Hints:
This protein is an alpha/beta fold. The termini are far apart. 26% of the residues are buried.
Amino acid sequence: MRIRTKLMIAVALNILIFVGVIFFVVRPYFIEQSMERDRLAVDSQIASVTETLANRKSSLERTLVDWAAWNDAYAFVQGKNEAFVDSNISEASLDNLNVNAMLFLNRDGDVHYATFQKQGLSLTEPEQQAFLTDIASRVRADANTRSTIYESEYGPVFYATHPILQSDRSGPVEGTLVMLEFVSSHFVADLSAQTKLPLAVGLTEATDTMITSRDGLTHVVIPLDTVYDKTDYGITFVVEPTHYANTVSMLRLGMVALVFLGTGLFLSLLWTFHRVVIRRLMEIGGELKQITVERDSRLRLSIDAGSRDEIEQMAASMNEVLAALEDTRAEVLDKAYRDALTQLPNRLAVEDYFAAVRKTYRHIGVIGLDLDDFRRINDQFGHRTGDAALIYVASRLNFYKEEGFVARIGADEFMFLHPNWTLEELRPVARRLMKDLADWADVNGVTGLTTTIGLDVFASHHPHHTYEILMGRLDVVLHEAKLSGKNRVLSFQEIEDGSHYLQTLEMERDLRRALEEDEFELYYQPIVSPHPFAVRGVEALIRWNHPVKGQVSPGLFIPIAEQLGLISDIGRWVLRQAVREMREHVTRHELFLSINVSKRQIADGSFLGELERILHDQTFNPSNLHVEITESEVGGNLHELQQFITSLKAIGVKISLDDFGVGTSSLSFLQSLQLDLIKIDQNFVKGIPENTFDRALLEGLYQTFHTLGLDIVTEGVERPEQLAFVLEHSSSLIQGYHYSKPVPLSQLENYLKKVVML
């Protein structure tokens, strides 16, 4: 088959396949996605309308409760407060309450007093009396209905009722307060403005929300009895499926454009055919010329392995000739680039390898291995033993190299390179090499044979990072490793970025000095019961006042203290200091004291004994102490944690689970841990009350924990609306900036004094 024929067939098939994929795969997918987005938009609008109606109803009911449970109103229906109307009810008050009429019914359900808003529906005096009589009869007939919309002669009317009680909600009931609002065009317009939807109100027989499609539009009917009690009315609105229409229009234009593009591409390829063939031949000629000029038999002509046309066959034959020349050249160069003893490549080969891979890979992992005091090994055990050691090292390097490259670059020095390896991949290989050599030395009786290994991750793509720089960095890290004691692994990054290594050492030294020099200080954050307002407890939080750096964040030094094993010492200091400072305050103000305990303190077993000694020495009541366990500890050794908690319970100490929600513990663990208190992490609080998901999740947590009989502390409460939400849905204690940030002991004392004076 001629090249021209193959080209035409291939192009035509590819165009047809591409168009088919677009039409049968991509097009249905986008249409389905657009329809789904329209469905989600309708669901969102339904939720918005329902929420708006519920909010309007809730607002009126809250206002109704405020007026109904009021001593003045109670006295008014008893006939003991004649000035009530003049003092409290006016056109302005009805307007402010957003109601059209108010009715005060006596015990018998008769109208004691009624008023209409003049700007509402205009009724004559007889019409008002008839309307009021109808309302009163409806309230008497269905005393269980607290709010509803019904059909009156003047259109749909929404009314809500509440018994008239004294301000403390005590009885007996002296009557019923009714507030009503006409579902007028103004009412519907207000709802439409809030939901940004063209709403309408009408009678409906539907009991559930109905979504139907007609004439390319989505019609929605939401029965109002999903929000109000016993009503035959519903809210209707129409939604245009914009996503579907836009997607279909876009796909039609795309298909037309694709047809024109495919046709143009096919014609263009026919015109360029001769240029394609001629250009390929010219490329082969140019590549042959380059090989001749550079005299590099490693170069090859580029060929298409799947093609068997005349041009590719010619290129393949030429490559076979070049391969034969390369084999001859390789035999000659092998002797110059390979170490005779170990059969590994030598330093010259390393340079060639580096030149080849640096163009392809962004960085190269490097291991440099230097046998310690190798001359002594040769002198003490003989050169044959020394050679055997070198050959063994070479064999282990070949074993671990995978796709990398190993070489002998000196008498007792070896090099391992692997493209794109990181320090995390190099270190295990280095440790295994050290162990392998130590095992070989033990088996062969070569005492004192050790090795020093340097690691590096070399950025090969950097223009200034040459082969000489690579070897220089390796020499530096090996030299530093030798100076620091030999027989060890050290990376160049530990030397180059000495700040982390040195800072860790400096931090360890400073932390030890801080414990000796008493540089730590405790801050306390109050834990508050809002209603009635009282400080129930405080949490002790450590701060470090560094003499040079100032105050160092706990987020910086606590992880390092954990890593260095100093956290137990710091934890003991916090326990002693907190108990000593808060002993009198806990008794005087009836507080509990919370302290944190780390995983290491639990594991090393030192905490319990120290706790008992401190409580005894300071005569501190154990029941006033809460030990906080971070939620991340629950995912560890559960049995060990249960034993620790059991021991604390035996002492009489309370157990709190801190930062609930940021770890991975399940609710089933909470019962098995015998907890006394749950501290809900502040991440749950940040989004409320605005975030619907956070609200629902937090409400569920409160209900679950109250059911389990657990006390709750909600952390991170900063804004009044957050506090209002927590108080509405729980009896949780509060810890957050709304009441106080963590403060030193002196400021805490002032805070507690102010609380006592309130």
